[in-house]
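Severity: low
Component: inverse-folding endpoint
Summary: output formatting inconsistent between runs
Steps to reproduce: submit the following structure tokens with default settings.
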């Protein structure tokens, strides 16, 4: 069973790899059956998730990370195509890998025309 510290480190390492566009490196921190649940949709399986990430190339600024046992919560600003969106992610770790995570944010800035 992962510890609180190792769960937090797994998630932060995953985010670091995504920020570096090291999708193979990020993939090492996820289960093959990764489930992503987001405001704009879901992805079932790590391959589906990483196919999207390679296209979207999001950037994450993490000011706060909380962990308790197998669960990690991040507060972050996600740069989505030049729009920074304040978000929260809840990551669940099983067997030292991210099994699932949920991301919540207000999608209205993404739905409005760019100025």
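Observed output (run 2 of 3):
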């Amino acid at each position: 069973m992962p510890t609180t510290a190792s769960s937090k480190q797994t998630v932060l390492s995953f985010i670091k790899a995504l920020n570096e566009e090291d999708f193979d490196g990020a993939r090492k921190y996820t289960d093959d059956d990764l489930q992503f649940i987001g405001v704009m949709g879901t992805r079932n399986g790590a391959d589906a998730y990483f196919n999207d990430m390679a296209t979207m190339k999001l950037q994450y600024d993490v000011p706060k990370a909380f962990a308790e046992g197998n669960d990690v919560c991040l507060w972050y600003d996600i740069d989505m195509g030049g729009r920074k969106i304040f978000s929260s992610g809840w990551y669940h770790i099983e067997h030292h890998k991210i099994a699932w995570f949920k991301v919540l944010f207000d999608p209205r800035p993404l739905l409005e025309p760019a100025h």
